[in-house]
Amino acid sequence: MKSAQAHYREHLGPVYDWSLGDFEQATARAQAQLVAAGLGSGGGALAIDLGCGSGRQSVALLRLGYRVLAIDTCSILLETLKARARGLPLRALEEDLRRFRGHVAEPAAAIVCMGDVIIHLESREDVRALLVDAARSLAPDGKMVLAFRDLTSLPTRFVPVRSDDARILTCVLDEQGPFVVVNDILHERRESGWEMSVSSYRKLRLSPQLVRADAADAGLEIASLSVERGLVTLVARRPPLGPV
Description:
Elements: H1 4-19, H2 23-36, E1 46-50, H3 56-63, E2 67-72, H4 75-84, E3 90-94, E4 108-113, H5 124-137, E5 138-149, E6 158-163, E7 167-176, E8 179-190, E9 193-204, H6 208-217, E10 221-228, E11 231-237
Helix pairs in contact: 2-3, 5-6
């Protein structure tokens, strides 16, 4: 069993961007989701993308007019993002997202943590601590957008992610107490035939209600909570008045 960081660095990172499909379409969906969450024109304000990956949310935020601090542990994905955002107000850092506050020198208008990033953390205590740090890093009336999968009940163990003539990526999920073990099975076509590689890591099983409670305990006001086909989207804000 690998850590999430090692899993992406050694196995999933080189094919992760491919697994998402067309980048422009993925970015357009991300931008629409952010606008629906209440993130309008950034006007040059700071937005933080925790677990930015190859940049769907970061590029969407840039196009909305924010300056973006993008943090991830996978250098491969960060290099992809930096190439896409060349010439735009992006600062991309290879760093554990639990230490993001050490890189923030001003209040943020928005913090996003999407694409299962929050359930890559090692414990619910890590989730609580991250939410507290986010609340403290937001400007008054600043918004936080969380998106993650509710893995508390699994409709299927087998998830076909993407395939083409050269690659096939499949996930097999196994319940393990407060975690789900994600087994990423990658087949790649070589000159000698198909080659298979497998790597496994854990994701937290967090219900929408638990994360909502933790966000409220961190001092955030919950603006909305939705669940669609197992994908949870929670929008919260720092109260406009008073300390967090």
